[in-house]
Write a structure and sequence with these properties.
By secondary structure, the chain is an all-alpha fold. Helices cover 83% and strands 0% of the residues. It is built from twelve helices and no strands.
């Protein structure tokens, strides 16, 4: 029954992922059906699982949002908003749970500090790049010079103009999202917390299925550290990195004789299940696309 609950929690994660994306899209100014938003989440889960740092999922989500009626600038803003919300939650939750649990405080705090500094740097650079439409114009002119030298002036003018238009759309969508009432931003952060909590509880349920202490607080903290480490773009789906990090962290409070079983079941119920379901959804979408092209 506990393993069945892990599958349900994984499904809840996919649903909340789609629900949050639908909310972000509506706050920016366009509507997508909840079912389609969940399909986007599931389809991108497959590409995320086979690319370093889960980066392959983002381009697919942008493409599917653009197919639903958004321009690429708006779609990119929506997808980036997802990543920023995740990062903000990790940056807030990780120090708090490290303090509450006391798990590997030195190692965990180093991970937290590096992550928070990186997030702050990313947000600062993004702000500087998109502070005004005049700044975007300077970026566009820079790309025009580069592209003109490589492919000629006509090519450079065409693609730099297109890039500028999409960057302006991106900026306007981001500003629109930030201008939303505070309660909407809180709702997005709350949905982000629920989203990650649903999947972070899975190892504890696996421990219960193995007749062991669930260690909810310690396990949740370990999951936060693992997810931040997994953002390092070294292997597809953070394979190897996630398992090694889990082995190190869970060995502090899980009996050695069930450690390997725990990590194996955890990856099957999350990583491999996401790959399988995402693959099926991608096949379904490709068939629909092929049929539409024939018509």
């Amino acid at each position: 029954k506990y393993l069945l609950l892990t599958v349900i929690l994984q499904a809840v994660f996919w649903f909340l992922w789609g629900f949050r994306l639908k909310m972000i899209a509506s706050y920016i100014g366009y509507q997508i059906p909840l079912g389609y938003a969940c399909k986007i989440s599931l389809a991108s889960a497959f590409l995320a699982a086979i690319t370093p740092s889960s980066a392959g999922g983002e381009p697919l989500r942008v493409k599917m949002l653009a197919d639903a009626g958004a321009n690429y600038g708006e779609a990119s803003a929506a997808v980036l908003a997802e990543r920023v919300l995740d990062a903000i939650y990790f940056a807030i939750a990780l120090p708090v749970f490290l303090f509450l649990s006391g798990i590997s405080t030195s190692f965990g705090m180093k991970v937290a500090i590096i992550f928070i500094v990186s997030l702050a740097g990313f947000l600062l650079i993004s702000y500087r790049m998109f502070k005004s439409e005049e700044d975007i114009g300077r970026i566009s002119r820079f790309f025009y010079k580069i592209l003109s030298k490589i492919k000629g002036e006509e090519f450079g003018r065409k693609w730099s103009t297109r890039l500028e238009n999409e960057m302006i759309s991106f900026r306007r969508a981001a500003v629109e999202l930030l201008r939303n009432p505070v309660h909407r931003i809180i709702l997005l952060l709350a949905s982000t917390a629920l989203l990650w909590t649903s999947i972070f509880l899975i190892p504890s349920l696996i421990l219960l299925s193995l007749h062991s202490e669930p260690n909810f607080l310690l396990s949740y903290t370990a999951q936060l550290i693992i997810i931040v480490i997994s953002l390092i773009p070294l292997t597809p789906g953070a394979s190897g990195i996630a398992e090694a990090g889990a082995a190190y962290l869970y060995s502090m409070f899980v009996p050695q004789h069930i450690l390997g079983v725990l990590i194996g079941l955890w990856r099957v119920m999350t990583y491999h299940l996401s790959m399988l379901v995402g693959f099926i959804v991608n096949i379904h979408l490709l068939k629909n696309y092929a049929n539409a092209k024939q018509l």
